[in-house]
Write a structure and sequence with these properties.
The chain is of the alpha/beta class. The chain folds into 3 domains: 137 residues; 203 residues, 3-Layer(aba) Sandwich (Rossmann fold); 74 residues. It contains 24 helices and 20 strands. The chain is elongated and about 90 Å long. Bound molecules: adenosine-5'-triphosphate (ATP) and magnesium ion.
């Protein structure tokens, strides 16, 4: 018995000596809850360049723990330093007690933004979460700042049944989980400059949405990235992992001779479904008189005063006498005709009666009811922004109508993901497009919008304010940075964090994750990891194996 006790003591002593002492990174020298702005200032004890913007730190007190992010790093103005700099004395100064700081006269400061306050250690984990609160008090002066522990991260980043990690907290080996059920409930936005990793992160989000089965998706895929294999960078698409859950529609001819390995349907739209808003969205800069003329022609068609099969035919063929009778502006009519010239070349636009097939949007609706998600692959039209805007507006508008008309039935929740979102959502045209209504009527008809965009500053302010979760990657333009941080509390201080992001990193915030975080997005090219995260245990289907064995690029080349 005595022996055992002795052993126990030895073990606990060993454990004690092994447990790493907490490294004090600095002490609090100033704090302010605001208004106008809130901050905790830490006098840095070591090298300032061991710390980094966006890094989490804990301020520890006996009563409370303050979970903070570093928002600003700087040296206070120091007359002595100014006098000594560039003088021979700098080399003669006593060897730095602290590397990089040069004696006690010189030190760096870190401004911290407090995201959560939690009770100090002695309370049960469950209560921790309930007791977490916003920054509503200040820590005592000289409180210690240190790295957060694994346990503390676990408490902050609570996981749920619907959560999965989009990557690791930057600089830490700790997952940042997103709750995907919460994510799909309100509009979300993914922003960043070109080539920075938006599409890949979007794929990761989409795959998790599919995994958790919290919503179906409608994706307008300009560059052919989301289907089976990306045509632009050969990374795997959504259908690669969830083939049976995706229906792809393709704009343009599908060569019958080539086996359609990804199950694509050719997209067909009847011209009589085109409405004025589709043309306005597509043209982007129609002036007011042209918009009025367009709407007037549409009204005359609806009231059966003009007799043409569809709006396009009416614009092209309206007779001079009709123009005069209804006082249509000839100049505007000319401008409209110019805008719709390309429509004649689009093979997927058919006159009703010319094709026996059902309109793809009706087909799509059936597929949605079967539980499928939709990818619309623009094929060779992918670089044609006007066409993209036209098709995306038209499809979304009709699905929205179907959804809003069938309120009685339980329709599957749907996230409509739009790239180049600002082109639909800029103030001048938004009231003519369908996206305005959807963004405002958040989730009313089970439809949610997701925006992927390079220019958030050009999105209508009111619509932008509906976005509940944002994933921000690196951006250069100050206006864009300003727009994404304007919805954050104490907005100014987030700017540095966003400008400092690198490729594949994102700043994520919103109600689908515990606290705002800088994330190293996971490596999407690691297929083994993706399969593990997506819970895909079974081997690839025969079809996918065939693709695996063959040249993956052939899928893109024959289109
Ligand atoms: N999480 C990631 N894992 C692996 N590779 C990545 C990741 N993010 C980005 N990349 C690499 O960076 C490239 C560009 O990423 P992506 O296509 O997502 O950028 P983008 O922001 O969508 O660009 P664009 O503005 O042109 O649409 C990818 O082709 C891929 O090689
Ligand atoms: Mg992209």
């Amino acid at each position: 018995m005595e022996e055992k006790e002795k052993k126990d003591i030895t073990i606990s002593l060993e454990e004690l000596s092994e447990s790493k002492p907490v490294e004090c990174l600095g002490e609090v020298c100033c704090a302010d809850t605001g208004p106008p702005s809130s901050v905790i200032t830490l006098k840095i004890r070591g090298r300032p360049d061991d710390l980094r913007l966006g890094q989490p730190l804990i301020i520890e007190t006996e009563k409370l723990l303050y979970y903070t992010l570093i928002m600003r790093l700087y040296y206070p103005s120091n007359e002595l330093a100014e006098r000594l700099a560039n003088s021979p004395f700098t080399g003669l100064l006593p060897p730095p007690q602290i590397e990089g700081v040069r004696g006690k006269e010189f030190y760096g400061l870190a401004d911290l933004g407090c995201l959560r306050i939690l009770p100090s250690k002695s309370i049960e984990e469950l209560e921790y979460q309930e007791l977490m609160r916003q920054f509503d008090t200040i820590p005592p002066i000289f409180s210690i700042g240190r790295d957060a522990s694994e346990e503390e991260f676990q408490i902050i980043y609570k996981t749920t049944e619907y959560s999965d990690p989009i990557g690791k907290l930057r600089g830490f080996n700790y997952d940042v989980p997103i709750d995907f059920k919460l994510l799909v409930e309100k509009p979300y936005g993914l922003f960043g400059r070109t080539g920075i990793g938006k599409s890949i992160l979007n794929k990761i989000l989409c795959l998790y949405i599919l995994k958790h089965n919290v919503s179906q998706l409608l994706l307008f895929d300009m560059q052919g990235e989301y289907g089976l294999i990306s045509r632009s960078d050969k990374t795997k698409g959504l259908a690669y992992y969830f083939q049976e859950r995706i229906q792809i529609y393709f704009l343009g001819e599908i060569d019958k001779k080539n086996k359609v390995i990804d199950g694509s349907e050719q997209l067909i739209i009847y011209k009589d479904n085109i409405l004025s808003g589709d043309i306005i969205a597509s043209a982007q800069n129609l002036n007011e008189p042209s918009i009025n003329t367009l709407i007037l022609i549409e009204n005359l068609l609806n009231d059966k005063i003009l007799h043409y099969d569809n709006l396009i035919d009416a614009i092209n063929n309206i007779k001079t006498a009709e123009v005069q009778e209804h006082r249509l502006n000839n100049l505007s009519l000319g401008a409209l005709r110019n805008r719709i010239i390309p429509f004649e070349r689009y093979n997927f636009l058919k006159k009703r009666g010319d094709s026996k097939r059902e309109d793809s949007i009706e087909h799509m609706f059936k597929k949605l009811l079967e539980g499928k998600s939709i990818v619309i692959d623009f094929g060779k039209y992918g670089t044609n922004t006007h066409l993209y805007l036209f098709v995306a507006n038209m499809i979304t508008r009709r699905l929205y109508r179907m959804y809003s008309q069938r309120e009685d039935e339980t329709l599957p929740p749907l996230v409509v993901i739009v790239e180049e979102a600002h082109k639909f959502l800029k103030s001048q045209i938004i009231r003519h497009t369908i996206f305005d209504s959807i963004a405002r009527e958040t989730r009313k008809f089970q439809l949610t919008l997701a925006f992927v965009d390079q220019r958030p500053s050009q999105i209508d302010e009111e619509v932008y304010s509906q976005i509940a979760n944002t994933f921000v990657m690196h951006m250069n333009d100050d206006k864009d940075i300003k727009r994404v941080i304007q919805t954050l509390p104490d907005s100014k201080k987030w700017g540095g964090i966003i400008s400092g992001l690198q490729k594949r990193q994102c700043f994520a915030r919103g109600d689908a994750l515990a606290v705002a975080s800088v994330v190293d997005v996971l490596n999407y090219k690691d297929e083994k990891l993706m399969k593990k995260l997506l819970g895909i245990k079974k081997p690839l289907s025969e079809t996918l194996k065939t693709i695996e064995d063959s040249d993956l690029t052939s899928l893109g080349n024959n289109r």
